[in-house]
Amino acid sequence: ITFPICEQYVDEYHLLTEKEIVMALGILLKHHQIMAEGAAGLSVAGLIKHKDKYKDKNVVLIICGNKMSLELLQLAINTQT
Questions:
Q1: Burial call 46-74: b when 16+ CB within 10 Å, e when fewer
Q2: Given this model, what pLDDT does residue 24 score?
Q3: Residue 23 has what pLDDT?
Q4: Euclidean distance between the first and final Cα of the chain, in Å?
Q5: Helix (H) or strand (E) holding 67
């Protein structure tokens, strides 16, 4: 997404760690059988990190792509066990 579009439409940003993103990918895989690429894990990780802020609200997450390396897949699986 280009910066001008984000500047116009995005209300806030959240900083996330690689560990939080991988954990989110593991949750998608284990609980929803969705194998998504790392960028898709960002929205899920942000929701998990700030879940209290979004409690009882309508939330839309964009989850796309499935280009996950075998190494990332194994890491995501291991974070859920």
A1: beebeeeeeeeeeeeeebeeeebeeebee
A2: 92
A3: 92
A4: 34
A5: none
